[in-house]
Every structure is written in C-alpha cells, then in structure tokens.
Design brief:
Blueprint (H helix, E strand, L loop, with lengths): L3 H20 L7 H17 L3 H14 L4 H20 L1
Helix pairs in contact: 1-2, 2-3, 3-4
Length: 89
C-alpha cells in the first residue's frame, strides 16, 4: 500500500507531465506517449480509489490510442468494483 502523501505527490507529478506535454506541438507520432501519460495518471487515481477520475483518464488514454488494451482491462476492474456498489443503492 502506497502512503497517501506519496500518491498525492505522484498525482501532481503526472498532471504536470500531461500539462507540459499538451503544450507541445501535437502530431500523430506522440499520441501513444500522451496515452501512456493519461494511463499512468489513471493508475494513480485507481490506487487512490478515485474511480470516476480513473475512468475519465483511461477513456482519454483510449482516445489517444484505441489499442491500449490495458486501459480497457483496468476499466473492467473498476466496473467490477462499482457495479455492486451501485446495486446496493
């Protein structure tokens, strides 16, 4: 288990990396790099149990690289957690 302080630091770092990358001139060559940055930030959100933010970043990852299979796998895992919670309410 990663301490909350460390997760917050990693989240800030991941967000900064995305912001810096987004300011650069975009081309199709670097879409997979951007997809990986969103995937990494989504993993941090997932570790923090911020499921909605994780889903958003995994979806953005897939927007940039539709073949990023691991993002789909992680989204499925989130749905496995969220569905039972939704059914209780």
């Amino acid at each position: 288990m990663i301490p909350t302080e460390e997760l917050n630091r990693l989240l800030t770092q991941a967000t900064t990396e995305i912001e810096i990358f987004m300011k650069q001139k975009m081309s199709y060559d670097n879409h997979s790099d951007l997809a990986e940055l969103f995937f990494n930030r989504a993993d941090i959100h997932l570790a923090m149990k911020n499921y909605k933010a994780a889903m958003t970043d995994y979806e953005t990852c897939l927007d940039y690289d539709a073949y990023f299979y691991e993002a789909v796998t992680r989204m499925d895992k989130i749905m496995e957690v969220m569905l039972p919670l939704a059914m209780k309410n």
